[in-house]
């Protein structure tokens, strides 16, 4: 091991020791941004960036499992991504399907957060099979946000709530009066799960772009300059240390 590698390992162990005194997030969200920028900087095609980013997701999940973080939401495909050029989108969708299958094969519980209706039928079927065969009693649950948009999620939740209330024979006025934050929350893609404690975004962008808009009201955020394929375990540990040292102020 060279000197840089040795220093890296020493620093990583120090961070691990610091984290022992704290409670880590119950739910970690991650916006895996920068695959195309990584590819461009490396002189590689965009598809190679997406493949490297996909491989990083599975590696990242092993780190989360080791740290006993029980729930991770990974934003893999936004509704805006669906407007990319057809050839790039086709490659990206295939990589995503392979990644979802790899996550399940690694033994994690997989849940869909989003809509796959705009994806090819064969891809939808592959994702459906993964969900149906994924056990719910695993140490780590992974929400794969595919065809995800935060505004769309809220609209879907409100629409479902209105339909449920309407099916009870309520009048429009009664439906409007019965719409509550609890009712909407129970119909989000992440229903039944805790809201994210920490959301990480890579590539230097400092915005959420609609990721978990409802659920992130009290989340902490951590942004880093590294493009997703270059994200390291030590970057995760630094994010967790920063989170643990903050004084969280819910609602203030």
From TrEMBL:
Gene3D superfamilies on file: Decaprenyl diphosphate synthase-like
Cofactor note: Binds 2 magnesium ions per subunit.
Parts of the chain that traverse the membrane: none
Transferase is among the record's keywords: yes
EC annotation from Swiss-Prot or TrEMBL: 2.5.1.-
InterPro entries linked to this entry: UPP_synth-like, UPP_synth-like_CS, UPP_synth-like_sf
Keyword Protein biosynthesis: no
A Gene Ontology molecular function term of the record: transferase activity
Alphabetized CDD domains for the sequence: Cis_IPPS
Pfam family, one: Prenyltransf
Active site: 33, 81
Role summary: Catalyzes the condensation of isopentenyl diphosphate (IPP) with allylic pyrophosphates generating different type of terpenoids.
Complex and partners: Homodimer.
Protein name: Isoprenyl transferase
Species, as recorded: Brachybacterium equifaecis
